[in-house]
Amino acid sequence: MSATAHLAIQNVTRQFMVNSRIITALQDVSLSVAAGEFVTIVGASGCGKSTLLRLGAGLDTGHQGEIRHRGEPVRGASLERGIVFQEPRLFPWLTVERNVALGLENAAVSKADKKRLVDEHLELVGLTGFAKAYPHQLSGGMAQRAGIARGLVNRPDVLFLDEPFGALDAITKAHLQGELQSIWSREKITMILVTHDVDEAVFLGDRVVVMSPRPGRIREIVPVDLPRPRDRTSAAFATVRAHVLQSLNGTTSARDPRPTPADATPVLPRPAPAIAVAR
């Protein structure tokens, strides 16, 4: 594992107990992400993509192996690691600006600075005119923009995105993909995005991580050496997309049931020797 990795995932295995059976969601996964890189992750449903994202963000810590952010072990959630989910998860009784301000709830900044940051990030996602609106007054795309603004407002070092455009129509999705790419280009925040959409993965990613079905493992990492902004209609784009699709089609379906929150119980890792990180 590279000593210069901004986020280092090393030999990570994650298991759950489902109906008295141990299900391995991830097995021996290793991935290095450089500072300012945009990495996308694709794979079949149940391959552990979202589990890997939650582990990287520190929302789940019951794993074997090691995850380090800027050289320090990830042992829980942190303001340095933001996350955006498929559903915006906005509180319906709060305005857009107050929903975004929740991202600064535990930040050590003054009230004036909080307002400035919220205003700046509403402008960043094109919602300045909707600061006083409530979630029910927003379209699906606008609500997702608010969710992205909340994820960015405290200036996280890494932003994890779990299928943020999966529930949107094709036109809105393509528009927000372009906006997210523009935000990333300007802000240079390290981003890791999980998606089922191969086109989206190639359009946004510097590298596309292809995962095999459960137990989730990295099958291939495909570099996307295409200039930005990317032309989805170009022959070069089609070539990379076809490569990723071919890699995905080479995987086989798993027979194990996918763990669900209702019946999945984490299997805690057994103590293991500390893993040294090369320096």
Describe what this molecule looks like in 3D.
- There is one protein chain.
- The chain has 279 residues and is α/β, with parallel strands linked by helices.
- It has one domain (37-63, 79-265): Rossmann fold, CATH 3.40.50.
- The chain has seven helices and eleven strands.
- The strands form two sheets. It has a six-stranded mixed β-sheet with strand order 6-7-8-3-9-10, sandwiched between helices. Strands 1, 2, 4, 5 and 11 form a five-stranded antiparallel β-sheet that branches.
- α3 crosses α4 (140-152) and α6 (198-204) packs across α7.
- The N and C termini lie close together (9 Å).
- Residues 252-263 and 270-279 have low confidence and may be disordered.
Fraction of residues in β-strands: 15-25%
Q: What is the CATH class?
A: Alpha Beta
Number of helices: 7
CATH topology: Rossmann fold
Q: Which structural category do the helix and sheet elements fall into?
A: alpha/beta
Named at the architecture level, the CATH assignment is 3-Layer(aba) Sandwich
Helix content: 25-40%
* Average pLDDT score: 87
Question: How many beta-strand segments?
Answer: 11
CATH superfamily: P-loop containing nucleotide triphosphate hydrolases
Span from first to last CA? 9 Å
Estimate the global geometry from the Cα principal axes: globular
Uncertain ranges = 252-263, 270-279
How many separate domains make up the residues? 1
Helix and strand arrangement:
Elements: E1 7-18, E2 21-33, E3 38-42, H1 49-57, E4 64-69, E5 72-73, E6 81-84, H2 96-101, H3 111-124, H4 140-152, E7 158-162, H5 170-187, E8 190-194, H6 198-204, E9 207-212, E10 217-223, H7 235-249, E11 264-267
Helix pairs in contact: 3-4, 6-7
